[in-house]
Amino acid sequence: MTQDQTNSRDEGRQSLVARLRLRLHTLQAAFGQTFGLGPGATLSALIFTTLVLLAAVFGFFYFAPPTTIIITSGDAGSLFQRNAGKYAKILARKGVTLKILPSAGSFENLERLVDPKFKVDVGFVQSGVAKGQNIDRLMSLGSVSYEPLYLFYRASKPFALLSDFTGKKLAVGEKGTGTNVLALALLALNDIKPGGPTTLLEIDDEEAEKLLAQDKIDGVFMMGDSAASRTMRDLMRTPGITAFHFKQADAYARRTRYLNKLVLLEGSVNFGKNIPDHDIYLLSPTVELVARENLHPALSDVLLEAATEVHGRAGRFQRQGEFPAPLEHEYRISPDALRYYKSGKTFFYRYLPFRIASFLNRFLVVFVPLILVLIPGLKLLPVMYRWRIRLRILRWYRALLELEGDMSRERTPEKHKELIGRLDHIEQSVNQLKVPASFADQFYFLRSHISLVRSRLLGDSSG
């Protein structure tokens, strides 16, 4: 680079700095004239206003809802996985992408949500699996469905009680599934525990189905979070295999608060073949849509809207509109979810596309309160500033009044000299005052009054 180019660049920088200073001075002058502030107060107000506006802009973008949600669902072909796919289609219509992470079921979903290092926002979790987990940072968007537990078994005669399976071979679902957690809990209530005479196999549903069909095990527990619906339908229709009738279902539901009694009605699987051929009592927890506590309120709304569309219809075990519902079990219900259940979506999200509604909602939340607070605050600044300047002027008026009061008393030459010194100090201090032009009249009045007092003081002396 040549010397001329270097000089030209330096001159350009100096020119830019000069222009910036000029614009800042012009802005400062305009601001001061508008609000009646001095240079220092004007600069402070400008800095404060700039910082507040920058914070508002940062908040506007920082609090924007993400357009991608990650859900932990269930095994391939499971009810959880199929429902997650339905959610994804509904959210896609609103411009939100739902990423689906397959899992082994409820227990793994909960472990992922509890682990802060695992990147996930929401998941399907069967009630009753949270024992021993730290769920303080989780919240429920509500229960979305029943999740009945089936026990398919092969026997020469029906079993009446779970304790009748003592000494048998039972598949209790893979470890990490809601099936496994609930099956072991129910068996424990009947004194059937791992390590006892009953063989408890923690295997997947496909393997369990094959073993039961080959008569190598006596029974298998299955739930929709891990088992495919086809698997359970096939077992229901297989000759010699029946679903266990929990005749003590009412007692179980009363003993375990997260369980519900359901009835699989006669013929409800196949009317023509009358499958099942009698009413069967089942036990069922509910499935909750569990999220981390930092889930954006707007995403909570769209998820619940999708849940209403997916789970709100009447089904084999539920009435129309029964789900989703704010049923609190282990998890606290999200405040945003409670607001949704009471009044539905907020105004903008009800009538506008997601992105536009999000923009307007954030504008109202961030900038409207800012305007309502900042403008009155800026109007208050000149009042406080004028009050401060006025106090500075009044301070020396008070000193003058005291001096005049002392002048009316009997004076000696020493006293007169002291009064002159006090007046000189007052005049010197006032001359050093820096006041804005709007206070020029009061400033010059004070100086003229000082001169008046000096004339009187000197006149008295000459007299």
Helices and strands in order:
Elements: H1 3-35, H2 39-62, E1 68-72, H3 79-92, E2 97-101, H4 106-114, E3 122-126, E4 138-146, E5 150-154, E6 169-171, H5 178-189, E7 199-201, H6 205-213, E8 219-222, H7 229-237, E9 241-243, H8 249-255, E10 260-264, E11 280-284, E12 286-292, H9 297-311, H10 335-343, H11 347-351, H12 354-407, H13 413-431, H14 440-462
Parallel strand pairs: 1-2, 1-3, 6-7, 6-8
Antiparallel strand pairs: 3-12, 4-12, 5-8, 5-9, 10-11
Report on the structure:
With 463 residues, this protein is an alpha/beta fold. Among the domains are: 144-343, D-Maltodextrin-Binding Protein, domain 2; 376-463. 52% of the residues lie in helices and 13% in strands. It contains 14 helices and 12 strands. The strands form 3 sheets. The protein has a 5-stranded mixed β-sheet with strand order 2-1-3-12-4, sandwiched between helices. The protein has a 5-stranded mixed β-sheet with strand order 7-6-8-5-9. Helix 2 (39-62) packs antiparallel against helix 12 and helix 12 runs parallel beside helix 14 (440-462). The relative contact order is 0.11.
